Amino acid sequence: MSKSVMRGAWCGLIAGIALCCLAGCETSGTKTSRLKQNWESYPSEHFVFYYPPNSPRLARMAEFAESCEEISGHLCGVLQIKADRTVDFFVFNSDPQCDSVLGRAAGFFEDDQIVMRIGQHPGGYVALAMCHFINRQPPVFDFLATGLFKLYAQPSVNVHAETFTFERQDRLIPLADLTDTASVKDPAVYATEAASFCAFMLANYGPERFKMMWSSTLNLPESIAKIYGMDLDRFETEWRKYYRRETGRT
Q: Which neighbouring-strand residues pair with 48?
């Protein structure tokens, strides 16, 4: 697995776009540090929000912050993690504005910071930021970050029903192939399936094992065997039973 692919998934780009950072280039963290001196700020429990003066977001920042805190509180409860510091959260007015400052479009988590534009759903990026408190590193398995991003970025989507539909259409990706992000041909299937799998692991086996998976340095079959006590084929069978039950199928 290439570092660029892993970083792409960690930044929440569920379409599988890799982010390549040239050695010696200025990081997003360095560039956003300048914004703190000139932008408005709004602190909350887990975040410090920064936004341009006279931003349309200004009048609704308290509401936006409350929404982000609700998401982070839910995730910290589900995963039983505790944030030991605040996360800087930059809210641009548009992609062109972000590109002019950072040299890229808004919508990523990097350098311990969230960068978004008005109109994007914050859930996925908040999820990645909170999960960073597990061990300060992206997971070895990209699909864990992608799955959580999908669950919290699109909370109204029934990922189990969609996964069942993909199975009926013979488009489902075997679990053994989820780690091969470079060969993913259908990002929508990959992201939805990853979300369903994450929900299955959390609902059936709890947060501690999920966090062990997040931090595991073993390959997927070895991780499943060590953490969940079964081989990969059986674990996949259990997952398929789960999403079928969640959609009223057996």
A: 43, 88
What are the extents of the domains in the chain? 23-135, 142-246
Q: What is the DSSP string of 140-177?
A: SSHHHHHHHHHHHHSTTS-HHHHHHHHHHTT-PPPGGG
pTM exceeds 0.85, yes or no: no
The CA dihedral of 17, 139, 124, 55, to the nearest 10 degrees, is: -80
Condensed to tens digits (0 to 9), the pLDDT of residues 70-91 reads 999 999 999 898 888 899 999 9
Q: Is the Cβ–Cβ distance between 32 and 115 less than 8 Å?
A: yes
Q: Which residues pair with 110 in a beta bridge?
A: 113
Tell me the pLDDT tens digit for each residue of 33-65. 888 988 999 999 999 999 998 777 667 888 999
- DSSP output for 116-138: EETTS-SHHHHHHHHHHHHHSS-
Q: Which CATH number fits domain 23-135: 3.40.30, 1.20.58, 3.10.320, 2.60.40?
A: 3.40.30
Which candidate, 11, 33, 35, 12, places its Cα nearest to that of 21?
A: 11
DSSP code at position 186: -
Cross-strand partners of 91 = 116
Where helices occur in 11-60 by DSSP H, the ranges are: 28-38
The radius of gyration of the chain from alpha carbons, rounded to an integer in Å, stands at 18
- Return the structure tokens found at 208: 């501690």
Beta-carbon contacts of 137 under 8 Å, excluding residues fewer than 6 positions away, are 215
Closest C-alpha to 131, from 120, 142, 121: 142
